[in-house]
Amino acid sequence: MRVTVDQDKCCGAGSCVLSAPDVFDQRDEDGIVVLLDARPRAELHEAVREAAAVCPAAAIALEEATERV
Amino acid sequence: MTTAPHTDPATTSAPFAVPATRAPGCPFDPAPAVDRARQEAPVTRATLWDGSPVWLVTRHQDVRAVLGDPRFSADANRPGFPFLTAGARVLAEDTTFSFIRKDDPEHARLRRMLTADFMIKKVEAMRPQVQEITDDLLDRMTDGRTSADLVTEFALPLPSLVICLLLGVPYEDHAFFQERSRVLLTLRSTPDEVRTSQNELLDYLTRLAAKKRKEPDDGIISRLVARGELSDEAIAGMGRLLLIAGHETTANMTALGTLALLRNPSQLELLRTEPSLIKGAVEELLRYLTIIHNGVPRTATEDVTVGGTTVRAGEGVLCTLNAANRDEAVFPGGDALDVTRDARLHVAFGFGIHQCLGQPLARIEMQIALETLLRRLPDLHLAIPFEEVPFRHDMGIYGVHALPVGW
Ligand code: HEM
Ligand code: SF4
After folding, report:
1. Which of A59, B115, B279, B402, by CA, is between 20 and 30 Å from B214?
2. What CATH topology corresponds to B21-149+254-406?
3. Single pTM value for the model
4. Are the beta carbons of A18 and B356 separated by less than 8 Å?
5. Is the ipTM of this complex over 0.85?
6. Under an 8 A CB cutoff, do B112 and A57 touch?
7. How far apart are CA B179 and CA B170, in angstroms?
8. Of B254, B292, B260, which is closest to residue B150 (Cα–Cα)?
């Protein structure tokens, strides 16, 4: 899985941090999303999918690895 | 033929008036008309107080689609914007209405001045302080007594104290701003009443901003003043939004949430025996009760197809969060309260770029308030018959006007 975030879209209410704190954080100065881990390990994938689903601003994009399904 | 009616047969039944009325005896459920609309015609015509038409968007996926779509505007000054009440239209005359009724990029510019104050780590660090305020209020409420009104003694002062602290507003003035908030949130307030209350509140906050210019502190208002980018009037507009949104909402969720648990004793018992369920329980209460209950307004800026229905440019829509949060497609058995449910996809805080800025704070306030209340008062019970509880059918934010409890 590859994760990307769009900081211009982010509205900073932190839902992604609640879902997957190992993968997302918020910038100290303005609360905008920071990606901690663009290739999270498999145990985190479910949490990352949830983060993308709850993100209100469509600021999180996921590219699922298709080769090993 | 540009005036042709929209042809979906399901939307041609007679439109009903919004806000729609809840069924007697079902104070936790959305109005039956709105519920029926979700099942039969998910994008349906309704009529506002002034007779103007509005689209009601009721399904979870459609509500998320509209609120997440930049082709729908939240700008209250755009022609066609669906005002829920006569008073709401008066509020929009004021350009300091702040970013909740503005579009990007102006919305983002203003919102981003506050996002750091409500981010998760900042709010998590406030837990000890919120716990202390909670314990103090319960000490005072229970001191030498066995009954009280939970709203005035606990549910309302808790978030009011917290938001005052954050903003740098003196809590001694709470009677003043709570009374003005009440007028602004009462659906039947006349335009004159709304105008007067709004001006008094803005004058008060403008004076406060001017005072912070001379005597700065580390509250939000003072820091907005120090940025030097906003007039005192604009800061007052931001302050008003935060002050009202910051205490009326959590207060009502706390009181209504307590009542919902008291009415569902098996759920209450689960939560008492397993306090670690509290975070999920708060999400489920947010979903089940959805206190922003009359619909979130937007205007289409171009023709957009929503759930198979064409909404034309300039037409207004109301996204009924409470209906969406009962959508069986997302929340099976959604008409029941189930504190073990995964309710995190609820839209009680809205969706899209306007999704609630204060949600991290609201969450910790509710988690601490409910956990502490249940732990400290094991015999908590309603002190009046359920049928006599005064529900806030008359308000923009749902809840109870009072909640007499004993312990
Ligand atoms: C249970 C408690 C709460 C609920 C259910 C709630 C609900 C909502 C909803 C539905 C919206 C979206 C309105 C729209 O799209 O037009 C919203 C926006 C907002 N809320 Fe909350 N809220 C709560 C608590 C709070 C708190 C504690 C604060 C502040 C301290 C707050 C501040 C705001 C602000 C500033 C906005 C406007 C955001 C924007 O337009 O970008 N809310 N809230
Ligand atoms: S959930 Fe989305 S909008 Fe919210 S902080 Fe994370 S990336 Fe930003």
Report:
1. B115
2. Cytochrome p450 (1.10.630)
3. 0.95
4. no
5. yes
6. no
7. 15
8. B254
